[in-house]
Amino acid sequence: MSTLPGRPAADEYQSFYAGYVAEATDDDVVTLLETQMGETLALFRGIDETQALHRYAAGKWSMKEVLGHIVDGERVFAFRAFSFARGESQELPGFEEDDYVAAANSDQRTLPSLLDEYESARRASLALFRSFGAKEWMGRGTANGSEVSVRALAFIMAGHEAHHLRVLRERYLG
């Protein structure tokens, strides 16, 4: 049923997310999300458990924590998209990323378990986005005090992950 949503207009998301939307470089966001899944899995499958605990500086997240954060972001953005596509009128809360990362205990998990969770979350997001028609893609709602569209959330999801993959390559693996 999915129709390609096209890139979101600047009024469909808070300016804070403009960098993420810009990092989603393909106008076909569903294909981008699928391709990105392969890239993320390949990147993390190329490192071992010890390397996955690396932090590039004191107080920064480990590579496992970055992956856990990507999964958290995936779920939050997908839930928002699901909610607004279904016509939710209640404002959805924000999430404090540092609190979520601390609560996730990603460093105590195996890298394969984190990758399984990532892949499951991404496949669920892809199935959700593929179910949308034009009306659902254009849905809007309020999250964290700001209006956002469903299609913007898909681009934000892709750009958020692209941002963290770039940081991993530059600061952790560089």
Protein topology:
Layout: H1 18-23, H2 29-45, H3 49-52, H4 63-85, H5 97-104, H6 111-130, H7 134-137, E1 140-143, E2 146-149, H8 150-172
Antiparallel strand pairs: 1-2
Your description of this structure?
- This protein has 174 residues and is mainly α.
- The chain has one domain: Four Helix Bundle (Hemerythrin (Met), subunit A) (Up-down Bundle), CATH 1.20.120.
- It is 60% helix and 5% strand.
- It contains 8 helices and 2 strands.
- It has a two-stranded antiparallel ribbon.
- Helix 4 packs across helix 5.
- The longest helix has 23 residues.
- The mean pLDDT is 96.
- This is DinB family protein.
- InterPro entries: DinB-like, DinB/YfiT-like.
- It comes from Eiseniibacteriota bacterium.
